Amino acid sequence: MVKVAIAGGSGQVAKEVIDVLLATGKHEITVLSRNEAPLEDSLPGLHWRVVNYDNQADLVEALRGTHTLLSFLQLFSDPEATVQKKLIDAAVAAGVRRFAPSEYGSTGTVNMPWWGGKERTREYLKKVNENGKILEYTFFQPGLFLDYLAFPYKTTKHIDPLQTVFDLENCRAILVEGHEDAIMTLTAAADVAAIVTHAVECEAEWPEIGGISGNRMTFSQIIALGEKVRGRSFTIDQVKSQDLEAGSLNTSWALEKRHQAVSEEQSSDFAKKVSIGILLSSIKGAWDVSDELNQLFPDHKFEKADHFLESVWKGKP
């Protein structure tokens, strides 16, 4: 049994992981939150601890006896990683053994300024251990959730559908001209939750980079698979990298569904930035995720993109 603390436990990805951790019946799990638990989050076996991230003593006390601390703090509202750094300091002071910062995406952050907090956290953790390992940590990096290619259909209990540059509903996609072979790693949310749970239970030392590679595919392979499961050709908007670098997105369509952490006022501009950022970062290798945790847990069978998408889209108009 491991005592696990979850920061940002009311988030959608956090809830997917919490469900799997609870299902094992092995762990004492405490959610750290600024607010009292909503009624729907009051689950058997799940403790809820209200904390003040500006009160170091309170944070340290909340983390006493914790073995593993998983962070799902929302990065959009903490671009300087100020809150997450406070969490790390408290973890060190409380003697927490393991920590996983809020990641759950690409390996690189180039051209994705909304994830600048990840880089600041990564650098901060290096400084924590610069004179010897004080805090064991890993960066859980699964690439893009495979579930997003099911948009607008929901394929998980908690994670809302989200649009991407691969629009299987309308049989269209956006790619960068001359970069059809750019890599995108796609991993099902269920696999991510399972691997995180395996990692919590694993006694071996965590690798610093926790790559989780469900499906490693090129843009052209994803589009070809989309055409196969939808039974029709896709309309492809090809954009020039120099236009993207200049902040211009010359396409016939745009992302409309906003992330739940983005305000309605920010939605339109942010959707454009996300499209540009994902396209540019993909041609620079940011979504070509490694597979350290695949190797650590070789018995885990990952959901394959073809099987997943065929099951989602079968019979859909």
From TrEMBL:
Name the InterPro entries for this protein: NAD(P)-bd_dom_sf, NmrA-like, NmrA/Isoflavone_reductase-like
Report the protein name in the record.
Answer: NmrA-like domain-containing protein
Q: Which residues form the NmrA-like domain?
A: 3-264
Q: Which organism is it from?
A: Cladophialophora chaetospira
**Stored Pfam families:** NmrA (PF05368)
Name the protein family: Belongs to the NmrA-type oxidoreductase family. Isoflavone reductase subfamily.
Keywords assigned: NADP, Oxidoreductase
Q: GO molecular function: any one? A: oxidoreductase activity
